[in-house]
C-alpha cells in the first residue's frame, strides 16, 4: 500500500475532537438516549418523556422536569470536558452521579442538529441554545430541560452507514429506557415512537415497576433478595428456574444505580443457579448492588457498562451467597412459586 503523505503535526480542531470522541460515546441512537436520560436523572427529574422518530435516527427529544440550566451556563453545557458533577480527583473517586465526564452533550452536538432548552426555578423564562451556532435565545417552557437531537450522524456519513434499520435502532433505544426505568421506579417515564405512546410507567415502587417491565411470567415466579454485609447491600428479585430463558435478555444488574453487564457479577449469579438450572438456560433477574462509591471504579469506559471493584472476591462471594440463599427458599417451599 502507498504511504500516506508526510504531514506536520498539528493540534486537531475542537469540533473534530468531539466528532472522534462521539464514536465512543454515541455509537448509535440508544447511546444518546442513555446519556440524555442520565443527565435528566442527575438533574433530579421526577418526570421524563422520551420521544423518538425513526428509531431515534431522525429525532431523539428528551424532556425532564429537573433543575434546569441557567441561561449563561448553556454554552458550557455543550462544551467539551465541562461538567457540574465533579471538580477534583477526590470527587471522581466518590462519584455519585451517573455522568461526570462532561463530554456527552459536546459529542452528541458535534454529530447531530442539537438544541437544548432549559429553565431553572429562578429564571423568568426558558432559554434555548442552538448547538450548531452556539446562539442562546429566549424560549418558552416550564422548569426543566429538553434536549432535541435531530439527524444523528448527518455530517459523518461513514458512521451513519453503520446504523441498522429504524426498527433495530428503536429496539435498542427502548431497551435503554427499560433499563433505566427499572432502576428508578420513583420516576415517571413515557416513551413515544413516531408519535405513538409505546410505554408509560407511572412512578411506583420497585416490585411493581419490575413486574410491569419484565412481565407477569417473571412477576409470578420470582424470589425476593435483600441482604446486607458491611458496606454491601444487594436487593431485587431472582426468577425461579421456571422463569429462565433461552437467551440472557432478562438479566438486569445495577451497581449504585448504574446498569452494568459485568462478567464477575454475572458469573456470581450464574454460579448460584448452578444446581437448579440447566447449563443452556439463562436465569432472569433484577438485582441492585449498593456499596460505598469509593469501593468501585465506574471510570473504566465511556459507555460505563463495566465496573471494577476494589475487592472483587468479596463482591463475588456476597452476590453468590445472597442469590443462593434466595433460591434455597424454593426447595424449602417444595416446588411452588411464591408470588412476591
Ligand atoms: P456530564 O453529565 O458528564 O456532566 P454532559 O455533557 O452530559 O456531561 O452534560 C454537561 C453538563 O450539562 C452537566 O454537567 C449538567 O450540568 C448539564 N446538563 C446536561 N443535561 C442536563 C439536564 N437535563 N438538566 C440539567 N442540567 C443538565
Ligand atoms: Mg451526562
From TrEMBL:
<protein>
    <recommendedName>
        <fullName>DNA mismatch repair protein MutL</fullName>
    </recommendedName>
</protein>
<comment type="similarity">
    <text>Belongs to the DNA mismatch repair MutL/HexB family.</text>
</comment>
<keyword id="KW-0255">Endonuclease</keyword>
<keyword id="KW-0234">DNA repair</keyword>
<dbReference type="GO" id="GO:0030983">
    <property type="term" value="F:mismatched DNA binding"/>
</dbReference>
<dbReference type="GO" id="GO:0006298">
    <property type="term" value="P:mismatch repair"/>
</dbReference>
<dbReference type="GO" id="GO:0004519">
    <property type="term" value="F:endonuclease activity"/>
</dbReference>
<comment type="function">
    <text>This protein is involved in the repair of mismatches in DNA. It is required for dam-dependent methyl-directed DNA mismatch repair. May act as a 'molecular matchmaker', a protein that promotes the formation of a stable complex between two or more DNA-binding proteins in an ATP-dependent manner without itself being part of a final effector complex.</text>
</comment>
<keyword id="KW-0227">DNA damage</keyword>
<keyword id="KW-0378">Hydrolase</keyword>
<dbReference type="GO" id="GO:0032300">
    <property type="term" value="C:mismatch repair complex"/>
</dbReference>
<dbReference type="GO" id="GO:0016887">
    <property type="term" value="F:ATP hydrolysis activity"/>
</dbReference>
<feature type="domain" description="DNA mismatch repair protein S5">
    <location>
        <begin position="210"/>
        <end position="328"/>
    </location>
</feature>
<dbReference type="GO" id="GO:0005524">
    <property type="term" value="F:ATP binding"/>
</dbReference>
<dbReference type="GO" id="GO:0140664">
    <property type="term" value="F:ATP-dependent DNA damage sensor activity"/>
</dbReference>
<keyword id="KW-0540">Nuclease</keyword>
Amino acid at each position: 500500500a502507498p504511504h500516506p503523505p508526510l504531514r506536520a503535526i498539528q493540534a486537531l480542531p475542537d469540533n473534530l475532537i468531539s466528532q472522534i470522541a462521539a464514536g465512543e460515546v454515541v455509537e448509535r441512537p440508544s447511546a444518546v438516549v442513555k446519556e440524555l436520560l442520565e443527565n435528566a436523572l442527575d438533574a433530579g427529574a421526577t418526570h421524563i418523556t422520551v420521544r423518538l422518530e425513526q428509531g431515534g435516527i431522525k429525532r431523539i427529544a428528551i424532556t425532564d422536569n429537573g433543575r434546569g440550566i441557567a441561561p449563561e451556563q448553556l454554552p458550557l453545557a455543550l462544551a467539551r470536558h465541562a461538567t457540574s458533577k465533579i471538580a477534583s480527583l477526590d470527587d471522581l473517586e466518590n462519584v455519585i452521579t451517573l455522568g461526570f465526564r462532561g463530554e456527552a452533550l459536546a459529542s452528541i452536538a458535534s454529530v447531530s442538529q442539537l438544541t437544548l432548552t432549559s429553565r431553572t426555578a429562578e429564571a423568568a423564562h426558558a432559554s434555548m441554545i442552538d448547538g450548531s451556532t452556539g446562539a442562546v435565545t429566549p424560549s418558552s417552557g416550564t422548569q426543566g430541560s429538553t434536549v432535541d437531537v435531530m439527524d444523528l450522524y448527518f455530517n459523518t456519513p461513514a458512521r451513519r452507514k453503520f446504523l441498522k434499520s429504524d426498527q433495530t435502532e428503536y429496539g435498542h433505544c427502548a431497551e435503554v429506557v427499560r433499563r433505566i426505568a427499572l432502576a428508578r421506579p420513583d420516576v415517571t417515564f413515557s416513551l413515544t415512537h413516531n408519535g405513538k405512546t409505546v410505554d408509560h410507567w407511572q412512578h411506583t415502587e420497585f416490585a411493581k415497576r419490575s413486574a410491569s417491565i419484565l412481565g407477569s411470567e417473571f412477576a409470578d415466579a420470582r424470589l425476593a433478595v435483600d441482604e446486607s454485609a458491611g458496606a454491601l447491600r444487594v436487593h431485587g428479585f431472582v426468577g425461579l428456574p421456571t422463569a429462565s430463558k433461552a437467551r440472557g435478555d432478562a438479566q438486569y444488574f445495577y451497581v449504585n444505580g448504574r446498569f452494568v453487564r459485568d462478567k464477575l457479577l454475572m458469573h456470581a449469579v450464574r454460579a448460584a443457579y448452578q444446581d437448579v438450572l440447566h447449563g443452556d438456560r439463562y436465569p432472569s433477574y433484577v438485582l441492585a448492588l449498593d456499596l460505598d462509591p469509593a469501593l468501585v471504579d465506574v471510570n473504566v469506559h465511556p459507555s460505563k457498562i463495566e465496573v471494577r471493584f476494589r475487592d472483587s472476591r468479596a463482591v463475588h462471594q456476597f452476590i453468590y451467597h445472597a442469590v443462593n440463599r434466595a433460591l434455597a427458599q424454593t426447595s424449602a417451599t417444595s416446588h411452588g412459586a411464591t408470588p412476591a
